[in-house]
Structure formats: C-alpha cells, structure tokens
Amino acid sequence: MELVYREMSPGRSYLKRAYLSINLWFMGRAIQAASRVDDQVRREFRSLPDKFTFALGVMPNGPYLVIQKSGTDTARYIGRRIIGQQIDLIMEFKHLEAGILTFTFRENTPIAFARDRIVVDGEVNYACSVVRIFDIIQVYLLPKIIARMAVKRYPRWPLGRKLVNRARIYWRSIIGY
Question: Check: CATH 2.130.10.10 for 15-175?
C-alpha cells in the first residue's frame, strides 16, 4: 500500500507582519528622536563611522527599518526599503516567528542572538552598538514591567531623565523630527 502525502505550505501571517511593520516603523522614528534627545544614544552613534547605515528586519523579504548616521552623533530614519541602498550592517531575524518573539518581548535581543535567531551581516562591534541603542530605545518606549523583559539589564536612571526624555522621544517620534 502506497501512502500519499499532501504537501502543505504555511499560511501567510498578515497580522504578525503588520504588527512587526508598525513596530519597526515606530522604533525607527524613535531612534531618530532619541539621537537628538539622549546623551547615551548620541555617544553610541558617535562611535559609529560617518554615513553608517544599518537595517533591522525579518528574512526573507521584510519588514525592515533602515537608519543612517547623519552628522557627528545623530541618526535619520531612512525608511523600510533595503533594496538600492548601501547598508553597512544588516541584522535580520531568520523568520517571522523569531521577530515576533522578540517584539512581543517574550525574548530579549541577547537571548535571540544566543539562540541563533538573528543573522548579522557586517561588523560585530557595530552590531553591539546597535543592540545597545535598541535597548535604550526599548527602555524609553515601554513600561518598566515590559522593558525588564525586553532588555538584558534595566538601567538605574533618575526619574527626571526617564520621564522628560520619554515624553520628548514620544513627541518627536509622532511628529517625525
């Protein structure tokens, strides 16, 4: 008796892709805003080369966020497309589910790296700077109870720094400055 197996392909996850797309869009704008507001983010951008461009996204075809260093220590959100741009560092989740795990804050970025869910194409020391920037942004954007799960080590910042900079980053992210 010959067994016949029907080949099945996974369904499209439109909701997950939309969630990641919105999350990456807002995070890109927040990185741009934080580079103008927070000294620690500016120091991280200062350590990167001029016109350094990095992208974070999901394999095989997105969504992505693309950030370029502009000036000495600020950043500019370029958009969602990596095609046709010279990108110095690309960090990609291997699949949609890996991105969802990280962006629903069930797994932080260092653990995603350790579990081999993220592929880095570029220099590792620059990737470490970018991960530190993402951690700072997540501390600003998320409530403390969720941010503790999203970052490896929650910082001890003065309350004024956290509240004032958080408000400034949210405001600049919304207006796109």
Answer: no
